[in-house]
């Protein structure tokens, strides 16, 4: 997955050794979800969401001077990583006014652009100081989504990452912000645009982006397993597991991080590509989209099941299955129509065949495949986001990719968007009012959150 090239707002984050500011009150928008039992009985849970630290105002501890402006660190406050962490405080967020984030009951709506802010990333909280965690093995995760207003180039993403439940404040006690302020992010790209990692700033070696006035790449990255439940706009959708060599958040250095932000993509400890199931890429161009079998112009229920070999929550992950529910119909995931690749779910056989036929490096298997992915699924944090892509204009999701690839090459076509139409400058100028709504989140044992077909 070539994601996480998020366009952050001009005022960014900190993770560890980061002070908590008090100039803006931090009030988490409430969001309910449901915990279900094997009998299909579901109980409402009282939760809330918190904005990722990378979007927040970072200012001097003793005042309101910006520690980071545009895509540049303040040299006086941040002469090095340790001093920056001591001098700077992460402040509260105006969720609706600054970031276009609203909740109502069990529904979360994200607006793409609000004033100068672009995109957002949020996490589900169990309480004001702790992320809600999930063991996905032998379980299913279900939610409703309305992606009808997301054009080419945008990505409304629901996914899990193996972040620390406290935002890292336990392992790095100098972190005074913690999960309350959305700290501790990591994913399979080992992102190097994170402002603070493991107790220190990421200012040393920071290179401002040449095509993005708000972002840059630092000397360090933050890695962990990632399970993409839903990456989609109104044109294309995909779900993708990304295993790593370590099942917890780890730090990496420079290009050894690999992933989107490094010169050597496969140098790191995680699989940045994953094993994706995009119906269009698998030869089903009429399965998902406007007016398709799964009609993206209307809300849809998305069900993802994580089956284990022995049917227990401690067993080896063997299969990741997908169902959709729309207009009272249960729709099984598309079958692969690619010669040499069979199936409609993510299994070891499917992934190995896909990598071979598409002539892709099988980094998924090199990093442990489904076995390793399953080991990383036992303590995951739910992430909900909306973003655009300054690295590849989201062509890996909804167009022909890699750029310039022959459309007839197996796996090259991922959607019907013309190459380049999703460029961030165009999307931000024309579709700032785009929104995505996630609602009716349910979690429980296999078969507990929806009525499966007989």
TrEMBL record:
EC number: 3.2.1.-
CDD domains reported for this sequence: GH7_CBH_EG
Subcellular locations according to the entry: Secreted
Keyword Cytoplasm: no
Keyword Secreted: yes
Keywords per UniProt: Carbohydrate metabolism, Cellulose degradation, Glycoprotein, Glycosidase, Hydrolase, Polysaccharide degradation, Secreted, Signal
Gene Ontology cellular component annotations, sorted alphabetically: extracellular region
GO terms for biological process, alphabetical: cellulose catabolic process
InterPro entries xref list: ConA-like_dom_sf, Glyco_hydro_7, Glyco_hydro_7_sf
GO MF, any single term: cellulose 1,4-beta-cellobiosidase activity
Family matches, as Pfam families: Glyco_hydro_7 (PF00840)
Function: The biological conversion of cellulose to glucose generally requires three types of hydrolytic enzymes: (1) Endoglucanases which cut internal beta-1,4-glucosidic bonds; (2) Exocellobiohydrolases that cut the disaccharide cellobiose from the non-reducing end of the cellulose polymer chain; (3) Beta-1,4-glucosidases which hydrolyze the cellobiose and other short cello-oligosaccharides to glucose.
Family statement drawn from the similarity comment of this UniProt entry: Belongs to the glycosyl hydrolase 7 (cellulase C) family.
PANTHER family, sorted: 1,4-BETA-D-GLUCAN CELLOBIOHYDROLASE A-RELATED, 1,4-BETA-D-GLUCAN CELLOBIOHYDROLASE B
Protein name per UniProt: Glucanase
Taxonomic lineage of the native organism: Eukaryota, Fungi, Dikarya, Ascomycota, Pezizomycotina
